[in-house]
């Protein structure tokens, strides 16, 4: 078992372990003795070298969570055998698990409406190499941001949703997501509410940015609500979308100071900066397989 | 008109203008032309030298707010004449105003229950010269913190409030506050809800510390609520107490980062540090006559 | 004298006072009695309505600073007369002063090398209406970022400076700045050191972003320095460029948390976000006439 | 191997694993394959159940670091055997290691001069149960803070160091530290420089709080230096004391915003709050065996 890159950040990992040899296992299960040993045994037995491992136990929920990164370059068997063996352990411990390989780059669709700041931010970070993914698709209910997608050479599709054709339009969107092999949908200030049916097709695979410190200021126009309440900080929250609006598992939050001098327009300006960084962090962590959601909570491994 | 100390912080002001010569005028009124000129004229005419002036207009509420600090050492008339003149202007502009002199040190009562961290913090800051006030009284519904008050040589009174005698006990408290000439009541993790009647006797003169980022987690056990919701930041809010619980004008807020690793006990520990600094800032600003409340908002002059 | 917009932020001001009627006076002088009165008198006498006023005194340096915003829509005379009158007062008090009118939009040149994040950030903020200026010019010592300038339809000029032709190239740059009527030069990760001669032509009109919390990690490769020192926070500093590298008056600074897990590449990634917001704040404040520099310090009015 | 408390915070751990059964192993060594496996094997073989494990590799320094917490309640052998086995592994991998048991509570001496805020803060946190240690001793070069130690019933010793008797006084101090079985010396604004000889006796066991964001403002009067430089943030740094002043491995840092309005006294006031929390965090992490120092850096496990 190699320890040569334990705890290393992605950027450093990449210099040492070829990306295509990297495996990341995410596990959650009822808390019991022997889980760590069993998983370590399986990986060791197949020649997978553990690079990094982090765990968490929610003592109240009696749940155990683990993230293990390993190097597959000296695998004694093959991935299929390894996965069979993991499945066996998983059944014994009633585990949920997912395994991501560096050989497969995740594919992200960005949903937008008219605000362009989060879209620009994601595309520029992607261009700068900060986000390890492909972004083959920008979808919108308005044509406005087509020009931005075009600047980056990305396919742009408009789904002009009205009350009457929402189900139909969503069906088309889902079809497109499937056709494009999308792993993650990012709602980058997308001003439409997705149906429960849509969301159920991408469980904990849709990240939304809400422009308040949730659970304060749920619903519409949170900066106006914040202004009316006279708060001294405004916030932003990235969370997984669930059927219940603004109540999905929170991934990341941050705040910025404001004062009586700030108009709603000032709060919006300050908030835009927050929305960008909070959403980008959440997306980056997702791409890095750092997030495990359970109930309305998340574990985000460092 | 002297400008020699404009915008200076209290500590620096004190080195130059003797505290007893300092006057601070706080004004709020419907927004109209000529307010600034009229006040400047009155002060100038009486020989009061403006040291520092700050204004704010709430364009939505159409309200004007101003704070003026001035030096009375070369007053041409006397304080009574000056106040008469201000009254005259105030009537013309339908102003609310209050005038504080450096000759009168504000008197603060601290209400506590069983948590001692905010009490210790306030008393140590007072001892260190950070809070320009007298603290003649600590009141509680429990005897526990008498030992802390005793360490600092401060009168400690217990009012063991039960459902049946609340009105009666509050009457005694009000009597004591009056007898002690209390200007400001600080609820330093006081676990009793004050009656509307009590609060109406000290309008915008009771500061409470709530252990969440309001309006998130109103009511009891906010750290438990925060833990249950899975937020990534916990906060604290200092606000004026009003008849509606946790809805008074917010004076100051701050947050600290937390993660899935933090238990409720961890949130409480992190929160204690926040509660202390947020409450202390609010109290200091109050003592410095920096806060103007209107509706459920505050103006806090720098 | 109108108070209807005192202390209002730019965005709110704009809704009420037409931008072309706005005047902003910035003043600094030795601290003396009567300055505020004298200036107020002049403005009042000419029918300029004070909207907002803020002052500061550096008691150690014995210097006085003031920023006054006023509405010229009901000017009794004209701008020339007003300026003559201000000049008279200024001579009496040995004042430095500058007066900006809303009728004239400031013109900004951005200097870059190969990093594009600050350039994109400024251009997107400008496009979003956050920066009240024109950006007619991007200059660089490399051709790389021409594509970015082109996306935004902005003139891009390359000055490929070598050791031998630096003076000559700078002369050309200065010529271009003059031809374009540039008010402010923003060094957005420009990797060339400007000569003292160049800087002297734009005193306190060149803003640089340094990628550390100055005065820590002066000079080259500050993220590498920070990594080597093992700090737990990395920072960014926006400052006016002066002849002495990294020692100009600091306008704004901010930091972000890091840990032993962060590689130099991680620090660079985290730092980019800081550099963008810190530089953008400094530029916005400059455009808003909020900054006064003296010695190696700044006053930044709220 | 039990996973039932993996990653749990101290407070939560304590509810489930009796403190006296807790073992914490800290390891550092040249980075090589097989370290994790070897240690896991030894612990597993002796019946020590791993509760929590975290690792880090400094790829540049080619060093590996690990912290393992385990439950000894079902140990198959005894602690002596376990330690022998660890020693064997350690020799094989040229490891530095230290093993702490919950049965032994660490003993802390606090060194102070005249500032009382950090001392009060540590003693109040200790009293509140935030710091899992004993504090049998407060030492000072001045008699002033004896009253504070007395309030908390703690032994107070004065060593009035002068130029001539420094070596002699330090010898007495070292004798006292040894007599009291001190594990950690906390310099809580202790205004004497310890000799290299003194420090060499407590390597990475002396934590100092410096009142600036190091490496900015090394040496004396950092708030005055910060004021003179006109920075927009002031900071505090907790670090291990080494023979070279202010250059020891940094454990924790934080900053607070300031402005041109802040006098040196204001910076000192704001800084005191920082010093307290930064020092307290560093001490808590030390007591929790979270810190590993190497060169002039630290690894601080979450």
Kindly report the CATH topology of the largest domain in chain A: Rossmann fold
Low-confidence parts of chain A lasting 5 or more residues at pLDDT below 50? 1-15
CATH architecture of the largest domain in chain A: 3-Layer(aba) Sandwich
By DSSP, the count of extended strands of chain A is 13
Q: What does the largest sheet of chain A look like?
A: 7 strands, mixed
Largest interface: A-D, 32 and 32 residues
CATH superfamily of the largest domain in chain A: Formyl transferase, N-terminal domain
Chain-averaged pLDDT of chain A: 91
Instruction: Look at the helices and sheets of chain A and give the structural class.
Output: alpha/beta
- Tally of helical segments of chain A: 9
**General form of chain A:** globular
**Assembly annotation:** homotetramer
Order of helices and strands of chain A: HEHEEHEEHEHEHEHEHEEHEE
Determine Rg of chain A (CA atoms, Å). Answer: 21 Å
As a percent range, the share of helical residues of chain A equals 25-40%
Q: What is the CATH level 1 assignment of the largest domain in chain A?
A: Alpha Beta
Strand content of chain A: 25-35%
